[in-house]
Specification:
Layout: H1 9-19, E1 25-30, E2 33-38, E3 41-47, E4 50-54, H2 57-66, E5 70-72, E6 84-87, H3 99-114
Antiparallel strand pairs: 1-2, 2-3, 3-4, 4-6, 5-6
Length: about 120
């Protein structure tokens, strides 16, 4: 069931299970949506019916070319964000198949803060 906040609570439940075991990650909000921060910076967020993920530019480009479930992340109709993609899946459990992508996102965001 989709909540009035325009995100799927079931997706959040699965994402919580995937990423919140990582000590580098803390939950938060982004544009009123549930989000996950790695250190001080946003790494992953629920947005409408999908999940936005910040990745290295090459990984984002590869996923956009090779994965039919991945689109450019354009929250609130804004321009495409170059290091971000959106993963759109109907079944929440299917997000588990992207655990390595979420882990790469967390590592990428943490590395950017070390610079």
């Amino acid at each position: 069931m989709v909540s009035e906040s325009k995100y799927d609570e079931r997706h959040k439940t699965v994402l919580d299970e995937i990423v919140l075991d990582d000590a580098r990650v803390r939950p938060g909000r982004m544009f009123g949506y549930p989000a996950y921060y790695a250190g001080r910076r946003l790494a992953i967020c629920l947005y409408e019916q999908g999940v936005g993920v910040k990745l290295p530019e090459k990984t984002a480009a590869r996923l956009l070319e090779s994965d039919a479930n991945v689109t450019a992340f354009q929250p609130m109709g804004r321009r495409r964000m170059r290091e971000w993609v959106q993963i759109d899946l109907d079944r929440s459990e299917d997000y588990r198949q992207y655990a390595s992508v979420f882990n790469e996102s967390i590592g990428h965001v943490m590395a950017q803060q070390a610079d």
